[in-house]
Structures are given as structure tokens and as C-alpha cells.
Amino acid sequence: MTKRLTTLPNGLRIVTEHMPGLKSASAGVWVMAGGRHERVEQNGIAHFLEHMAFKGTKRRTALQIAEEIEDVGGYINAYTSREMTAYYARVLEADVAMALDVIGDIVLNPAFDRKEIEVERHVILQEIGQALDTPDDIVFDWLQEVSYPDQPFGRTILGPQERVSAFSRADLQRFVKENYGPGQMILAAAGAVDHDAIVAQAEAIFGGLKARKQHDFQPAVFEGTERREIKDLEQVHFAMAFDAPGYRHPDVYTAQVYAMTMGGGMSSRLFQKIREERGLCYSIFAQSGAYEDAGQITLYAGTSTEEIGALTQLTVDELKRAADDMSEAEVARARAQIKAGMLMGLESPSSRAERIARLLAIYGRVPDVDEAVARIDAVSTADVRRYAGELTTTGAALALYGPVEGAPSLDDIRARLRA
Questions:
Q1: CA–CA distance, 270 with 293 (Å, rounded to integer)
Q2: Residue 397: its pLDDT value, please?
Q3: Sign of the dihedral through C-alpha 312, 260, 325, 386
Q4: What pTM does this model have?
Q5: 405 burial type by CB count under 10 A (0-12 exposed, 13-18 middle, 19+ buried)
Q6: Hey, is 235 helix, strand or coil?
Q7: Which of 159, 233, 258, 399 is the Cys-Cys partner for 239 at CB 3.0 to 4.6 Å?
Q8: C-alpha dihedral (119, 125, 129, 135), degrees to nearest 10
Q9: Which residues belong to the active site?
Q10: In a 3-state reduction of DSSP, which class is residue 251?
């Protein structure tokens, strides 16, 4: 694998990774403009903008955007996260230049046709409605909100219905002007790619953009509160979060190993104790999420109203017990699972392009995969036990949805963690 990085005079960064033997490539533009970059009155506009990119440009209709990529068997998509918005395509080697031309067009020249804005507004409102009707999705939005209350980092990506209903063409244009400068963009490509050819094309497409001042975002501060929504559902949806390291913190891989041991698979502690031994739920898992300056350990389970008390108590007890008896075998298994998941995923050019864009945004460089593997291997059982002990003393957040009248409160959980 050969990684190369070029920065244009206006600040646009171009990073590529050539993958020998491949006949296809993934290429796109990652913009450091996500949910956390929105002001409160803009909540949801980054996602709205992502939708509008595919609704036509000054050169192409919405249908022409789709046809140009799909006529060559390619695939084009986008997503909005808390930290960035990405526009990317997967095509054969011969069609990389065409794909970049399309992506550059939708990023730089969206038409923002007023009729199309209204059509897409209804689409997004349907998307919000669908999320509200999906308990094991919406409970994580609420968990984010109560982990980071009254902060951009805690707001939903989709935005509230009343905001989405009011966004105007001028609002979209303002967000682009504020956040879509060349210094806030990374063009990343992986697979069958020619770095020099991509740089030349990037200069032609993006070189004329003027550098802009980049706005600072509000740091994320985990505070941890509680939200419970009573609804007549079959199950209680239980989600809990703990403050965890961001990408730059030395414990970021320790947190990942810990989360894997607790709830990362069928052999994990929570799955074995709560599902296999006690039968208290069908689904239970734990995961670690990291961002530039923050992170979370999150746990989720779905259970009956009669079992939520026992499930919560057993979950807290397992979290505490890990500080005393986490075994070498559990840690070794978790390290192997994390490494295998990472390495298997990176066999795809789309995953490679995503990785190099994200890491460049966070670190200002692209660490080798071997560096990540070495850091995972360096996590010891003592590290995980220490981290487990520290985790139970940090703040916690709780979100509950369903028939939750008798469910333990966040205060109950904190008291049991301290006991």
C-alpha cells in the first residue's frame, strides 16, 4: 500500500492510498462540517445540505447525477456525522476522473432549487418520523443528548422537525459559506488510483476556491443526565453511556478492548451473563466510540418491564467486577476481534478512503495500519482492569424508552456503581 498526501495552496488536502491488484477505486470529499459545527438554530442543516447535493447542480440534474455514475456500474452516496459530511463514489479504475468530476460538482455547485428543497424537506421529515418509530435507534439519539446536554455535540444529526420545516435556501447557502472552505475539505481516494492524476484534477476543480477562516467548534463535555420516555411497547429499551477517551487520548484503544470484553460478541461478559445464563434479553451489547476530543462507552439492551431491574443490576455488577477479575484470555480475545475487524474491513477501497480521510482530519497525518495494530497489542490486562475501575467512577448517562415506570433511575445506578 502506498499513501501520498498533497496540500494545495488554498489548504485543500488530497490523500490517496494505492492498493495493488484492484480494478476499482473509492473517491470522495470529506468536509469537516457535521452536527457539532451547527449553531442551535441550524440543527439538522448539515444533513439537509447532504441531501440537497444530489438534487441537481448548475451542470447536472438529479437524474443525470445518478445516471452518470450508474451508467458505468458505479455507486455514489453521502452521509452526515457529528464531525463531518462525506460525499463519495465507488467506480472502476477507468472512471475515477468522471466520479471526481461529479463529486466536485455536487459539493461546489448545488442548485438549491426551491422546488427540490421542498421535496427533500418532506423526505427528511419522513426520515425523522421513521427514526422516532424505531425505538432502538431513537434511544441512542436521546442518550447522546443526555450525555452532552445543551451542546452541539449532543444534538441529533437529523435535527428537530420544527427546524427542518423552516430551513430556507438562504440558510443552506449560509452554512456552505461558513463551513465549506478548502481548508475544511479532504479529498481522499483509495484502490486503483493515480495520486498525481488526482492532484491535477483536484487543482482544476478546487484550486480556485479561496481559503477561508475555519471556525472553532465547541469542545464536548460529558455531563451525564437521564431521559425516560414512557410508551406502550413490548420491550424496555435501555441505553447507558460513560465518558470515554477521544482519538488523541492514550487510552483510546484500552477503551475499545474493554468494550469488546464486556459486550462485543457472543463470548462477551454481558452476553454470557445476562442473555445466555439468565435469559433476561435477546439483544445486549457494548461498544466504544471515539471522536476528535471525546468518546463514549455505550451499552444497550432490550428487555421486558418485569426484567429491567434485574438486567440493570447485573449489568452494573459486571462493569464493577471487570476491575478485579478481567482475565488474560478475555483481553487477548478482544484484541484479536478488534484487529480482525479492522484489517478485514480495510480490504475494501471504500473503507481505506474513509480511514485515511478521518485520520488525516484528526491527526494531521495518516498513521500506518501497523501502528494501530501495535497499539492494540500493547493493551494489557492490567490496563483494562485499571480502565474498568476508573470507568465506574466517571459520569454516566441513561436513556430509557418503553414501559419504563419501574426501571431503576440514573441515581440508583450511580449508587450501585459506588457501592
A1: 28
A2: 97
A3: negative
A4: 0.94
A5: exposed
A6: coil
A7: 399
A8: 120
A9: 50
A10: coil
